[in-house]
Amino acid sequence: GGAAAQPLQQEEGFVRDNGSLNNAVPANGRHAIEARNLSVYYGDFRAVKDVNLRIEPRKITAIIGPSGCGKSTMLRAFNRMNELVPTAWAEGEVLFRGQNIYAPDVDAVQVRRHVGMVFQKPNPFPKSIYENVAWGARINGYRDNIDDLVERSLRQAALWDEVKDKLDQSGHSLSGGQQQRLCIARTIAVRPQIILMDEPASALDPIATLKIEDLMRDLAENYTIIVVTHNMQQAARVSDQTAFFMMDEDRAGYLVEYGPTNDIFTNPQDQRTEDYITGRFG
């Protein structure tokens, strides 16, 4: 692997045009990002309610739970992606480096530079492999050698050796697993601190899935990763921490239990967690 690209320095504020937030509090080293009393709504429907969750830095946190329990909504709350749905709104706070990303003067685009996202289905841009990686960095004003950045990002995404001789070919010419790693390289190139992954391997075959899991473990040396997965074996294999969500009678998702993955899977504190993990419901 090439030299690991370092995530953005702690001092850099994420509201570039707004002095009020440029003096971002450096991360205290304990939490990469934290939800406090967070509820997310779509219109009148509450999809996630009263979640308190502290994500540890440079670890992989898995969010598991039955279908419809708000896992993806919770994930997207960490970088304000829910706002792309016109009726969505949030109550409570998400603290990133001591700042509430939902504060009125915070620019959601800046938040998404620091908290990147990899989606369920690979979605490369209709551009060359090279441009897929370079484009986001370029529009964010990257000034160093772009060739180096592209190579480094593709190496970090464990894709360089497979594509280095065809960087000018379309990203869509790659296999599904390669496309997903290209999307990860594209995310890394913008140098986020946190990478959100929404069931990143669910559209892939078992071999491509294992490559993505290996890649996640490598990336966790430099990045905080939060992954939604419906695959409990995957959560058990790849994550350090696991958050188990269920939904209440109003179909609002809530956090049941959160802790080290090994504890959640072998010695859960809540009967509902044990019932879900052992397949008694869900």
What does this structure look like?
The chain is globular and about 55 Å long. The chain has helices at residues 19-22, 71-77, 108-114, 129-139, 146-156, 160-163, 176-189, 206-219, 232-238, 261-266, 271-277, and strands at residues 33-42, 45-55, 60-64, 88-96, 99-100, 115-118, 194-198, 224-228, 241-247, 253-260. The termini are far apart. The chain has 282 residues and is of the alpha/beta class. α4 (129-139) packs parallel to α7 (176-189), α5 crosses α7 and α7 packs parallel to α8 (206-219). It has eleven helices and ten strands. A six-stranded mixed beta sheet has the order 6-7-8-3-9-10, with helices on both faces. It has a four-stranded antiparallel beta sheet with strand order 2-1-4-5, with helices on one face. The longest helix has 14 residues, at 176-189.
